[in-house]
What does this fold into?
Amino acid sequence: MRGQSLADLQRNDPVIVRRAFSPPDNERLAHVCGVLDENLRAIEQGLNVVVTRRQEHFRVEGGKLQAPRALALIEALYERSGRPIDEEQLQLLLYEAQRDVIQGHAKPVAPAEVEAGGEIVLHTRRANLIGRTPNQVQYLRQILSHDITVGLGPAGTGKTFLAVACAVDALERASVQRIVLTRPAVEAGERLGFLPGDLSQKVDPYLRPLYDALHDLMGFERVTKAFERGAIEIAPLAFMRGRTLNHAFVILDEAQNATPEQMKMFLTRIGFGTKAVVTGDLTQVDLPRGARSGLADASEILRDVVGVALTQFGAADVVRHPLVARIVEAYEAATLRGEAGVAAERAERAERAERTPLAPASFQEGRRSGRGGRP
It folds into this structure.
C-alpha cells in the first residue's frame, strides 16, 4: 500500500470540491473541525489537500483522488459529530482514506470482510471491531479457522489486540472455558532485578499490553470477575512445562524473546478444543547477544505444517499514529541498507582473496614447521 506516496499521486491540475452542511449546527461543525481546526489540519497533512471552511461551507482542493476522498472523510466525521471526535477515531478514518487513495479510489471502499465473502463479527464491547487491512482480515480468518496462528510484524499492526479480541469472542460464545495469557519474562534492554509480590504481581508488568486490550474489550469490572473465577489466567512461560491446556484460548505475546526450547515446549502444551496465537516482532529481540529466537525458528519450521497458519504484517498494516508507520519504514530501510553493506563487504573480501596469490606449498609447509620454507 505504501510503496507509492500520496504526494506521488498529486496531479498537476488540482480539483476543487465543495459541500455545505445545512441547516447549520455549530456544535456538530465544531466537533468535525476539532480544537483550533486540528482535525482539518490532520486531514490536510494526511491526504495532501487544502481544506478551507466558512461556517457550514467546506472547500477541498487537491488531487483528483485526494480531494473527493477528503470530502467524504469530512462527511463521515459529520455523521459521527453528535459527540466530540477523539484522536483514535480520526486516525482510523484517515488511515482508511489514505488506503483508498493509494488503491486508486476516490470514494470510500466497503470493508474488506464483505468483499472477501462474509463479515467477521466478534462479540466484544467494541461493536466496530474489524480488520482494517487485508493482512488483518487474513489474520482474523486464520485465527478462527486454525488451531495455531503465528502473527509476525512490527508494533502497531494489531497482532496482540486482534488476538485478544478473538479470545474474548471465543469466551463469550463459550467456545472455550478460559483465556490463558503468557509472555517471556525478558526486560527490554534493562535489568529490573527481582520484583515484589506474588506470582501474578511479578509478571503483571510484562503482561500489561494484554491487560490493556482486555480492559478495552471487556471492561475493568468484567475482567476482574473473570480473573476471580479463573476464566482468565496468567501463566508465565517458564512455568508451563508439563501442563496440557484443554478447551482454552492461549496467547503467547512477545514470542521473539522465547528461546527455541521454550517455543517447542509452549506449542506442545496445546490440548483438545484449544486455540493458540503466537505474536512477536523479530526486529525487537531482547535475548542475549547470539541467542537464537524461538519465534524465528518456529516461523521457519512450522511454515508448511497443516493446522498452523502464519501472517506476516508490514508497515502498511500499522494503524497507530501515522508517525509509527513512518518510523517502522525508516527502520526497515536502515536494516536493508545495513544488510546490503555487509553483503558488499563480504563480496569485496572474497574478491580480494581471489586476487591474492597463494604462497607455494613448500613455503607454507616450512612456516608451519618453523623453517621459513628453506630446504
In short: The radius of gyration is 27 Å. The chain is about 45% helix and 10% strand. Confidence is low (pLDDT under 50) at residues 112-117, 188-192.
